[in-house]
Amino acid sequence: MNWLVQHKLGTPLSPELSINLYSCQFCYLMLLLFKTYQTLSVMFIGVVTGEMFRNMQNSEIIRKMTEEFDEDSGDYPLTMAGPQWKKFKSSFCEFIGVLVRQCQYSIIYDEYMMDTVISLLTGLSDSQVRAFRHTSTLAGQYLCCFVNLNFVLISPNTAITPKIDMLHLWSHMLQENQDEIENMMNAIFKGVFVHRYRDAIAEIRAICIEEIGVWMKMYSDAFLNDSYLKYVGWTMHDKQGEVRLKCLTALQGLYHNRELNAKLELFTSRFKDRIVSMTLDKEYDVAVQAIKLLTLVLHSSDEVLTAEDCESVYHLVYSAHRPVAVAAGEFLFKKLFSHRDPEDDSMPKRRGRQSVNANLIKTAVFFFLESELHEHAAYLVDSMWDCAAEILKDWECMISLLLDEPLPGEEALTDRQETALIEIMLCTIRQAAECHPPVGRGTGKRVLTAKEKKTQLDDRTRMTELFAIALPALLAKYSVDAEKVTNLLQLPQFFDLEIYTTGRLEKHLDSLLRQIREIVEKHTDTDVLEACSKTYHALCNEEFTIFNRVDIARSQLLDEQVDKFNRLLEDFLQEGEDPDEDDAYQVLSTLKRITAFHNAHDLSKWDLFTSNYKLLNTGIENGDMPEQIVIHALQCTHYVILWSLAKVSEGTSKKEDMLTLRKQMRAFCLMCQRYLTSVNTAVKEQAFTILCDLLLIFSHQIISGGREALEPLVYTPEASLQSDLLNFILDHVFIDQDEDSNNGQQDDEASKIEALHKRRNLLAAYCKLIIYNVVEMNTGADIFKQYMRYYNDYGDIIKETMSKTRQIDKIQCAKTLILSLQQLFNEMLSDLGPSFDRSSSAFCGIKELARRFSLTFGLDQLKTREAIAMLHKDGIEFAFKEPNPQGEGHPPLNLAFLDILSEFSSKLMRQDKRTVHMYLERFMTFQMALQREDCWLPLISYRNSLQAGGDDDTMSVVSGISSRGSSVRSKKAKPATGKRKLPEGKTSNVTEVWMNREQSMQTPIMMPSPHLTSTIMREPKRLRPEESYMGVRRGTGLMEDDEEPIVEDVMMSSEGRIEDLNEGMDFDTMDIDLPPSKNRRERSELKPDFFDPASIMDESVRSTHFLGYDAFQR
Predict the structure, then answer these.
(1) pLDDT at position 1004, please?
(2) What's the rounded Cα separation, in Å, for the pair 128 and 1112?
(3) Where is this region: Disordered (predicted)?
């Protein structure tokens, strides 16, 4: 091996060794070249034999590989899945690196092997076969990279001999090798890259951009110039996010090296605007990398990005997507917070408002105020938490900025700035204590590491020690400012309360309790009072020794407030005297305080029900009770009922307590019902909301989960109450925006959103009553008929309600849908008269609504078979219900309804179309069948819809029931599992039942619906005799042309898929990246799912006997 070492070092060899060396090199070269061909052929799923290698040119090899390639499969190693192919790409790239390293000293420069390989790769990269282009492009780019890398690595280590002449010789050889490598790379670039960076396949384009980025970074002298950079800039406009992402990551490697910044100036000025626009890319990963690239650009030079460029990134700190927000937070920190005076680092560390962080905290406040998104301080804090936690957790400095006097020459914070600082301070404390992103950003709480848990514990300890002392002073200074006090009062919720005892801070706790008491007595704002209530609730924790101290203070406060309320109420309700405004204000203020505390604290021992009920009853009788007093009295009484229920549910109360609760609950429901007729809209809305909550809580679901002892509390609303609730919805929800404008209310966008949000909550509350079977399902007809008219405002709620009701009872849901169409048809007749134009907008609107309803039944006709049959039955009866007063020769008044009913004909199975057609003929006379006038067109079109596809309906069974004799259905249909065939003799009996109209009534055989928690103790509702029916037609079989027996239908279980389809005309929605405002956020929380499926459906699978459509009985 000495000769090989000498050759590598440049030492002259003897002639014999030279001959042996070159012969070995040639053999080794041929072996490597053949192995390379074989490896590439494996990649392309082709075979290159030794004979092909010796006797065929590259073009002939490529042609033969193309002919042998299986284009039908479309799979090749780079795209195959599975454990054996998981690391194939990295292994193949490693093979290329090994090949170059083995040839790095001489073979790579012999102008044969590399030329041959590059020629092969260039030819393959121009192939029309995707596998060849993809693999050759990958191989070519990595080959160029490894050739350059190995040349760079070996060149400094070669000049190891002291001989001058050998140094000159070696320098000349290095220059020749460098030229050879540059020629190779240029050949690969022009032969592969230039053609493939625009390839139709995104993966190939991504490979090209990724590797040229590596070339420019590793071999910047040759490749880092505008001639190559332009390809990256152009590709940043690629349609695929994967390719745009590779462009950004390639540029990040260049901008990270400051030595290369000078060569990037022209590129930066040319493509800077494109990079800035990519921060709003629809692909979040691309947006994140674009922001990180701008941060590197900013790091290289502050003058490159303009103020407008920076502002386009600043607002992304409020993005709902956390990686985007965090990247924007790093950019913001780099731009505004990382500049410090050199003198600050040399001076001793100061604390408070004299610390280095003081100016940075002020900068954060100024930025927050200028962004004008004052409801989203938590988003700003979370965005900067990873990069600026040291500044954000400098609570000592924040306290000093709020409490200490400004230094000489220092400008004090304004009131608005102090409010913003307190809000930011609260958000930082919440972030440190909870260690998870705010609501709306992130998927939820994550498991903390041991280090994070320790940091969290240390932060809670430090914040408690600081604010336990400072909070009373802060409350005393800002006690009259409701907004500041509300935020400050939330701080104790994140304290480690044990510190009050271990740190001997009891006197500061007493000071805090005194300040809270004074705030309760000063304020009547609901937010402030609720914050005080929550603070007492957080401090009254029995696990800590401070409980007794806080409980005594709370009891004293409530005793005073309740005594004051009873005293004021007695004077306020005295007969013969008109209450003045001062008395009303005192009663309202005290009632607000009591209501706010009753929300979080049990005040049952003060018997607030009697006084509040007396107040409400007086308001009903006199009718002059102030609006706010009634609203808070209703809310307070509601809390009384709920706390009593909680006490009874624990099982420790007496039987008398349950009877008292039952009596109070029913009396209160009656009182709320009476207030539904109030003249004041706010009072009616409050009464309606409370009624819906109580009816849902005290429905049959109250006894679920082993709480049968609470059965006496079950309350079923009477028909009058159900009617009042429905009328309220129709009068106050389904109204135009202009009608809802209150007197004196500013008609701006914010007020409209708030009003719509309120109406959506009201509608959702009532829809819950429908799906939990608290009110009759047919009351939903008045809701469903508004689906089209109010689609933009309530379409999601109504559609979800239809979906849930269908899961509960398909037949009753279908009857409700057809009832809603019938109601609209009757309303149209009353407005337009019997001789209306069927092309009118009103009639077309009803027909479009029917089409929408039809789409919600899905494609599985077997699952909806009985429901669709019931729907057609009700529709036919309605169409012929009202005869024409002019005589039998004229069409019935409702005949045009058949045109609407025809929208559901496509949902009928083949045999059912004939059955429905027979049922239709029952109502038709011989003369009707002969009529061809325009007024009879609905009947004609409906008959045609029932006859269409009757002979060749291949879609009649979607779920795949086996057909033993039917030649029409698909032979590939598999036998349905879980379905039971009826005896053969059953068909004729069912046919007779269907055909004989004069026979006795028979109720369809049905299994009960899946139990709701709210209806588990109810008996299944049976159809009234007038609601059940049988179809008749003598002498004809129900399924005369079908040899397949009738089967049962297994209904969908709670874990089954929802069969509703997305309707074709649903509007596309756009995701808003910025977090919504308070109103919009609440609306978005309401929208996704109003009802919990787990509480609606149990795990049982319900089945409905399907006896040849006994649903058509009469």
Answers:
(1) 33
(2) 62
(3) 960-985
- Any alpha helices (H) in 778-864, and if so which ranges? 781-784, 791-808, 810-832, 841-855
pTM greater than 0.90 (yes/no): no
Q: Which range among 35-49, 630-644, 703-717, 1013-1027 has the greatest average pLDDT?
A: 630-644
Q: Say how far apart CA 981 and CA 979 lie, in whole Å.
A: 7
Of 1113, 951, 960, whose CA–CA distance to 1047 is shortest?
960
CB atoms within 10 A of CB 708: 10
Tell me the C-alpha distance between 77 and 221, whole Å: 35
Residues 6+ apart with CB under 8 A from 44: 65, 69, 76, 124, 129, 131, 132, 135
pLDDT at 1056: 36
pLDDT at 113: 65
What is the enclosing helix (H) or strand (E) of 1104? strand 1103-1104
Return d(Cα 996, Cα 1035) in angstroms, integer: 10
Place of tokens 């909680």: 646
The torsion of the CA quartet 13, 19, 20, 22, rounded to 10 degrees, works out to 90
Token look-up 């600081």 returns 466
Please name the amino acid found at residue 664.
Q
Largest CA distance in the chain: 134
How many residues belong to the chain?
Answer: 1114
146 with 97: CB under 8 angstroms? Answer: yes
- Rounded CA separation 205/188 (Å): 15
pLDDT, tens digit (0-9, with 9 covering 90-100), for 266-313: 999 999 999 999 999 999 999 999 999 999 999 888 788 999 999 999
Check: CB of residue 588 under 8 Å from CB of residue 629. Answer: yes
Paired residues of 1103 in beta bridges: 1050
Direct distance between the N- and C-terminal alpha carbons of the chain, in angstroms, rounded to an integer: 104
Q: What is the pLDDT of residues 433-465, one digit of tens each?
A: 998 899 888 766 778 899 999 999 999 999 999
Phi and psi angles of residue 775, each rounded to the nearest 5 degrees, phi first: -115, 165
Q: Is 366 helix (H, G, I), strand (E, B) or coil?
A: helix
Q: Which of 592-606, 659-673, 730-744, 917-931 has the lowest mean pLDDT?
A: 730-744
**What gap in Å lies between CA 1106 and CA 1089, rounded to an integer?**
32
Give helix then strand counts, H and E, for the chain. 47, 2
User: Lowest-confidence range among 868-877, 921-930, 957-966?
Assistant: 957-966
- Could you give the CA distance from residue 458 to residue 432 in angstroms, rounded to a whole number? 10
- Give dist(CA 471, CA 475) in Å, integer: 6
Q: Are β-strands 1049-1050 and 1103-1104 bridged in parallel, bridged antiparallel, or unpaired?
A: antiparallel
Cα torsion 950, 951, 955, 956: sign: positive
